[in-house]
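Hypothesis: this fold can be encoded by more than one sequence.
Test: take the structure tokens below, design a sequence, compare later.
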């Protein structure tokens, strides 16, 4: 595990991205996988094929080529969301707790550019930050046993789209019709670590036309 800082911010994320690219080039087919996340990179290799001291030496060499202040890279992805009480059970409670209308919560959620800091918990579950402080909300005291696929949620200052039905304790505010993980597709996910994400509010009819589910 390679640690590149203690903070979660765009500058550290740029370091993570640059290190990931340099390590991938240095180790090539000796890698099993690289998992960038927040302020770290997990380096997976076959210890029966490669010695850890050699891997460490080559990783240090790769990092020496990384600029002191690299620029964050990534695509910009727009995800449509149907914000409503029928798709977001916590939309009204969250708004009431924040002293806002539901329309204001939606506007604030859509107005922010989010960075993909990590992908985990489940395939395609992208941790996005940071939510406007006015709509930040703690996790639920009791997680739900079932959160529908596509649910858009907030926990603290992070937001995410549930890629599949699962238990979860985040505050649900809407639902996204875009599949977040398709195993047979290439790429299998619409976002990657380092990408920027915007949410776009759509109405019920558009949500259903895009393949959204209400069950």
């Amino acid at each position: 595990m390679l640690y590149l800082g203690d903070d979660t911010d765009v500058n550290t994320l740029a370091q993570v991205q640059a290190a990931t690219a340099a390590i991938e080039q240095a180790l090539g087919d000796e890698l099993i996988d690289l998992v960038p996340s927040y302020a770290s990179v997990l380096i997976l290799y076959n210890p029966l094929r490669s010695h850890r001291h050699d891997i460490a030496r080559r990783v240090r060499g790769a990092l020496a080529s990384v600029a002191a202040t690299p620029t964050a890279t990534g695509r910009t992805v727009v995800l449509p969301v149907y914000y409503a009480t029928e798709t977001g059970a916590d939309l009204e409670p969250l708004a009431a707790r924040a002293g806002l209308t539901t329309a204001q919560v939606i506007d604030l959620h859509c107005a922010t550019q989010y960075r993909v800091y990590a992908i985990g918990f489940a395939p395609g579950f992208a941790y996005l930050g940071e939510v406007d402080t006015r709509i930040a909300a703690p996790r639920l005291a009791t997680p739900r046993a079932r959160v529908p696929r596509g649910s858009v949620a907030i926990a603290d200052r992070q937001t995410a789209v549930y890629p599949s039905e699962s238990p979860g304790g985040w505050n649900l505010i809407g639902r996204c019709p875009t599949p977040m993980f398709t195993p047979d597709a290439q790429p299998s996910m619409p976002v990657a670590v380092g990408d920027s994400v915007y949410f776009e509010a759509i109405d019920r009819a558009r949500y259903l036309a895009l393949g959204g589910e209400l069950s």
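The helical segments are 10-27, 52-64, 91-98, 102-111, 204-209. The radius of gyration is 19 Å.
Hypothesis status: open.
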